[in-house]
């Protein structure tokens, strides 16, 4: 059977099979998911250099890789292989190609262990959502499918924990998939990790609140048994109010610190943008002046030699201004690396990109994990971050002030020199149009 016909027949067969036998509660492993895998298989296969025959094999495997769910949830890969083999034998498909199709289907078993490029293409297409922004949407569908079918009841925290483990261990196999989807997989890992930690924190806070309520209740009962006078009861109430006030004051102080950091950093960034803008203005203006002088006045100096000194004063002023304006906008380059010892000794500020841009993702994630778990290290890094921002701003505005001073005083000197030149050479009758023509 021709390549196009066998694929069309497989598509119609799977569509009819899913419509007749697949449970409506299969909201993840359904026809839409199979279509998605087929499309991604074709795309990854072409990007990986597969020929038409190889694309035919891996696409057939994509159509049948989840067909076993119509027979059994557990061991669906083996059931899918039986369905695929029966279909291909019925259509007189080449036995060697059939074996490769079955091998591709078998490779999708978790954990994935593909043996060749064809199996790698299908494995990457099957779990491609690990490296897409809609990963959490697909993950929620799978969770609901498990719960609806009674496969497994999982809490939200446990589900995020499993997602973190999967995202941290899963690897794409083809070069195209690694380059295309691993960056987003890393982002999904960080997001899942944050959600998991947040849920754990909420659970701990709820447990702490319940324990505290129970403790307070028992304590109150004990105090009521010991305290019989109204005076003692009033003292107890006063003490509780003091404790509550101290706790609230601590929360307010912490929020104030975070607001201070946020506002200070934003102000520093705005000042830096203002300095760059002013420097760009000076570069544009002085470049324009130099352009006018070079194209018009220099060729007139032979005819009007007394304008030589004022002209070169003006050129020197403009060139010096441009140099200092470039100093304002010129970035500093750092090595972009750190060591584990630097993190352990809290010497590296991971909030500044210049300290990690040459580091592997795993080392950076480890460092950020250490930072997020150490409040003192985190606040210390934030303090260092806007301190060094201030150092950069100081350098920028120092050069910018020098640039503006040179431009202001230099312009005055240059204009005075031109005026003096015209006064000392009264015999010259030069009009503005004479110089420019």
General description of the model:
This protein has helices at 3-21, 31-47, 52-64, 76-90, 95-106, 117-126, 135-149, 156-169, 175-226, 230-297, 308-329, 340-344, 361-372, 375-424, 432-436. It folds into 3 domains: 1-126, Hypothetical protein af1432; 129-226, no CATH class; 254-436. Helix content is 75%, strand content 0%. The chain is built from 15 helices and no strands. The mean pLDDT is 82.
Structural class: mainly alpha
Distance between the termini: 82 Å
Coarse morphology: flat
Total number of helices: 15
Ranges where pLDDT stays below 50 over 5 or more residues in a row are none
Order of helices and strands: HHHHHHHHHHHHHHH
Strand and helix map with partners:
Blueprint: H1 3-21, H2 31-47, H3 52-64, H4 76-90, H5 95-106, H6 117-126, H7 135-149, H8 156-169, H9 175-226, H10 230-297, H11 308-329, H12 340-344, H13 361-372, H14 375-424, H15 432-436
List keywords for this structure.
mainly alpha, Hypothetical protein af1432, 75% helix, 15 helices, flat
Quick structural overview:
With 437 residues, the protein is an all-alpha fold. The chain contains 15 helices and no strands.
């Amino acid at each position: 059977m021709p390549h196009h016909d066998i694929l069309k027949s497989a598509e119609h067969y799977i569509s009819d099979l899913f419509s007749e036998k697949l449970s409506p509660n299969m909201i993840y492993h359904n026809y839409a998911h199979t279509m998605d895998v087929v499309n991604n298989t074709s795309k990854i296969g072409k990007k990986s250099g597969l020929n038409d025959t190889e694309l035919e094999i891996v696409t057939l495997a994509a159509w049948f890789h989840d067909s076993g769910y119509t027979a059994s949830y557990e061991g669906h890969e083996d059931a899918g292989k039986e369905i695929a083999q029966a279909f291909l034998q019925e259509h007189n498909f080449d036995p060697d190609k059939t074996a490769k199709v079955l091998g591709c289907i078998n490779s999708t078993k978790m954990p994935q262990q593909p043996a060749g490029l064809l199996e790698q293409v299908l494995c990457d297409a099957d779990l491609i959502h690990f490296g897409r922004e809609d990963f959490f949407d697909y993950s929620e569908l799978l969770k609901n499918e498990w719960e609806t079918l009674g496969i497994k009841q999982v809490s939200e925290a446990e589900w995020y924990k499993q997602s973190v483990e999967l995202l941290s261990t899963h690897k794409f196999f083809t070069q195209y998939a690694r380059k295309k989807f691993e960056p987003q997989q890393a982002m999904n890992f960080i997001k899942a990790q944050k959600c998991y930690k947040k849920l754990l924190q909420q659970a701990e806070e709820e447990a702490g609140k319940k324990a505290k309520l129970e403790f307070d209740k028992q304590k109150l009962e004990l105090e009521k048994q010991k305290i019989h006078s109204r005076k003692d009861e009033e003292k107890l109430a006063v003490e509780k109010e003091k404790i509550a006030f101290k706790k609230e004051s601590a929360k307010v102080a912490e929020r104030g610190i975070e607001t201070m950091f946020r506002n200070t950093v934003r102000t520093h960034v705005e000042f830096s943008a203002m300095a760059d803008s002013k420097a760009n203005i000076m570069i544009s203006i002085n470049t324009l002046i130099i352009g006018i002088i070079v194209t018009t006045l220099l060729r007139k100096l032979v005819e009007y030699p007394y304008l030589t000194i004022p002209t070169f004063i003006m050129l020197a002023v403009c060139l010096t201004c441009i140099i200092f304006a470039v100093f304002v906008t010129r970035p500093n380059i750092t090595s972009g690396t750190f060591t584990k010892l630097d993190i352990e000794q809290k010497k590296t500020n991971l909030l500044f990109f210049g300290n990690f841009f040459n580091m592997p993702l795993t080392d950076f994630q480890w460092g950020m994990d250490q930072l997020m778990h150490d409040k003192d290290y985190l606040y210390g890094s934030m303090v260092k971050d806007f301190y060094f921002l201030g150092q950069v701003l100081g350098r920028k505005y120092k050069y910018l002030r020098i640039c503006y001073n040179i431009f202001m005083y230099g312009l005055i000197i240059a204009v005075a020199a031109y005026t003096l030149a015209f006064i000392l050479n009264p015999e010259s009758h030069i009009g503005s149009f004479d110089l420019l023509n």
